[in-house]
Amino acid sequence: MDFDGLVAQCREILEEHPWQEIQRWKEKTGGKAAGYFPVYSPLELIYGNGMLPVGLMGGGNKTEIERADSYFGSFVCSIVKSTTELALRGELQLLDGIFFHSICDAARNLCYVFKRNFSSDRFIEYIHFPQNPSSPSAVDYLISELKRIRHVLEEANGRRMSEESFKQSIHAYNENRALIQRLYKIKAESPHLLSTAEAYQLIRVGSALPPEEHSSMLRTALEEIPKRRVRPRDKIRVILEGSFCEQPPVELLEALDEAGCYIIDDDLLLGRRWFEREVPLDGDPIRALAESYIDRSRYSSVSHDWRRPRSERLVERARQAQATAVVFCIAKFCEPALLDYPLFKDALEREGIPHVMLEFEEKMWTFDKLRTEIETFAESILFD
């Protein structure tokens, strides 16, 4: 299959058949599936226990909110409402459990809305990640929490997870992250060969597939990308920041790609490449996973590491990527991203790095206004 055909297959799965892929895996293996809400969840622990981790990314712009509005106030982001709408419609029935964690107040409350309304036939768990990674107790605390989650998974699956299967799972996800990182290297070095929308679909399809199957698709893509005949264009190099949880519509990413920007790095689907280095396979896998979260993870507005301020890391990232500018693409009512924006803005202005802020929501259908904003921004830099 050539590259364009592979991307088309990924888009079809994401738009029409993600639950069919999950059903196919469950029928083939006899295993169970556990959903996880963005941003990061310990996928290695879920998959090592024989369950398929399934990313819950909301309902997108094809899901009408008919009942979920009655469960929340007005000022709540789209992904919380559309995920609840999917549950109310019975579209999450294939999931045998769901994990939430401390993204924001809305996500925290969503966990308990689900516990109250949808826990009769599945487990609903909240993972308490440490909020102060600089604490000497952070690793030990996370080890105890991951052990608790391991027990939840073993109880739900009716069997104990072996250390061997756990390490095999870590290895599978190490490989998967390495392949994703190779895609991002192409985006940074030859952005004309791989658009953000294409890379996004190639990565997001992994949220409904086992890591080995997804890695096979990524290897095919990496083999085919160099064969593409795409000429470079006169665009600015930008970093996309702020879309770590609720994901922009693919059509918005396509509009950004077409509006004079090469997006050379982003925080889309950040949980799929959360660790900056491989999780070690020697020693205790629970400890390795906990230490990786504390000391080897990427910065995000939902992870508060006082040892390295996020604004400094954004500037450092922009410099290393030789980015011309930063585009903030923030979901409407996203408190973590909106609270961080003034800090990021001040840091970028001190360093003389141009930036622009866009706001989106799942239910967007037209992107002309945002396209015009980005085109104007890009032209102001290109012709300055």
Proportion in helices = 40-55%
Listing every helix as H and every strand as E from the N terminus to the C terminus, the arrangement reads HHEHEHEHEHHHHEHEHHEHEH
The CATH architecture of the domain at 17-161 is 3-Layer(aba) Sandwich
CATH topology assignment of the domain at 17-161: Rossmann fold
Report low-confidence residues grouped into runs of 5 or more: none
pLDDT average, as an integer? 93
What is the overall shape?
A: globular
For the largest beta-sheet, the strand count, sense and barrel status come to: 4 strands, parallel
What is the C-level CATH assignment of the domain at 17-161? Alpha Beta
How big is the Rg?
20 Å
Structural class: alpha/beta
Strand content: 5-15%
With strands numbered from the N-terminus, the spatial order across the biggest sheet is 2-1-3-4
SS field, number of helical segments: 14
Distance linking N and C termini: 43 Å
Total number of beta strands: 8
Report what the structure shows.
It is a single chain. It is built from 14 helices and eight strands. With 384 residues, it is α/β, with parallel strands linked by helices. It has a domain of 145 residues: 3-Layer(aba) Sandwich (Rossmann fold). The strands form two sheets. Strands 2-1-3-4 form a four-stranded parallel sheet, with helices on both faces. Strands 6-5-7-8 form a four-stranded parallel sheet. It starts with a helix and ends with a helix. The mean pLDDT is 93.
